[in-house]
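pinging the channel bc i need a second pair of eyes. not urgent but kinda urgent?? the chain im working w is below, pasted from the shared doc
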Amino acid sequence: MANSPKPTARRLSWDVIRVVAVLSVVLGHITHQSKIMHPELAGYPFTVPVQFGAAILLVVSAYFACATLRKDKPGRWLFKKVSRVLPGYLIAVLITYVTMRIAAAAFSGQRLHSGLSGFLFDPAIGSPTTDAPWYLPNGLDLYANIFMIQGWSTDFNYLDGSYWTLPVQIMAFTAAALLFPRKWRTDKTMVALIWAMLAVPLLIRFVIFTPTNTPSWAVTAIFGLGLHRVHAFAIGIAIYLWTKNRLKTWHLGLLLASAVVAQDLHMFPLHYATAIDPQRLPSVAGFGVMLLAMCAAAKGPDWTWLRPLARPIKWLAGISFGLYLVHQELGYMLARALRDLGATPWERLVLVLAAAIVAGWLLTVLVERPAYRLLTREQKAAPLALPHPSPPVDDLVEGHAKTASPISVGGPS
């Protein structure tokens, strides 16, 4: 095996990007999305309505995919990526499913059957005693989430709304591993690919079809293939090329502006013909500001002015994938239980946030990290038989990219 370059000091700036992005997702789901899904959970002391964190995590993921892909055989690289994200995800799915079964029946005034099969898969006993019963997941939902095919049928339900990023990222990683060794991979073709990734999904959603007149099969394909988030991967690739001086700054500026427009259109498709309103502005502006911060983190000096906070920032960045996986639906159920116990809005907010962080840490140290170490022990051959890349045309990535902690998706890097 080829010797890896010695890593330089880990850069704090990338950890800050990750933490800000994942906390925006977590706080947005706790304070804003929860009252949409479950109106009885309204009343938090403040609301975070921004919707950019998951997309930024995908941009980060794409950037680090570019930074690390050429260091290993594509098959082994892909295997490591999947090994990083899949074990934690599967455990989170199982925990969420069982907890949802118990909580949904209890909140709706019902009870579950005795026996393992009845407990896990049968409908609840009794009629709901509330006007807004909680959804009781079934075996089909469990299988769809395990195999990450939730977006391919209206019969499937996401056990947790955050899970949409996992199939999108794995598809993107697979495409990267397959495309990387090809001889066509020049700077010109890469830039053309980036523009195509930005433009083609928009053409499909707003020209070939419209948000109000899209056939069901097209909706399934768009969301199943993650076309509404391809722009995030495109701009991550663009930022990486820019850091290697393979893309002019003015050209990156055009791509950044285009990505912000694409994010706005895909996030708020029914309002694409109207001016930006106050409800959309925080999400659009937040996405743009975070892209600029990523550029500063990628090519500028490290953010040493945040060194006093380095320890908690790095710790949160290290568990951010686990935190992302367990905060939403499990958080809703905890918030409902706390409300039923008489907790105040501030108490609910603090306890749900603290519980999400603890659960994310436990998932990281008990599942994600040991499973990754076990699965990626030295093998005599690559787990996947993809061709080895042709001689690299770019420099080795700096050590900070090698040592930065991975995250998913929204995502793992």
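so The chain has a mean pLDDT of 87. and DSSP finds 16 helices and no strands in the chain. — does that match what u expected or am i reading it wrong
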